[in-house]
Design brief:
Length: 122
């Protein structure tokens, strides 16, 4: 998988090690939904505009869909937990827009259904 080649999460605990493949999956889904490359989403250099918003979306989905806390997501992406908290707050604010909210609900459904399928096959 391309995300596995680019993304190397820190494996500092049991919860992290169990979720690394799920995080890779999130990155690939968000990359496809936003038409932004996996590399741009996972590399640590600063970006603005669409790339920054897509990256914030990955952080938010890691917290909400995978039940990871800010510190765990921060460790996975080499970011501080306050950066993750900010990304989640920004994404929550964007959900006030009904069109964005429906789009994000669709992405969440895709993530949940494909993760369930992965778990059924493993």
């Amino acid at each position: 998988m391309i995300a596995a080649q680019v993304f190397r999460p820190e494996r500092s605990g049991v919860a992290r090690a169990d979720k690394s493949g799920d995080i890779d999956h999130l990155v690939v889904v968000v990359a496809a939904a936003t038409k932004i490359s996996v590399a741009e989403l996972v590399f640590s250099y600063r970006r603005t505009g669409p790339v920054a918003r897509a990256r914030q979306l990955v952080f938010y989905l890691a917290c909400t869909c995978l039940d990871l806390n800010y510190s765990q997501v921060g460790a996975a992406f080499a970011r501080d937990r306050t950066t993750i908290r900010h990304a989640c707050a920004r994404t929550e604010d964007r959900r006030d827009n009904p069109r964005f909210d429906r789009w994000l609900e669709d992405i969440e459904k895709i993530i949940h259904s494909t993760l369930e399928l992965q778990n059924d096959w493993s």
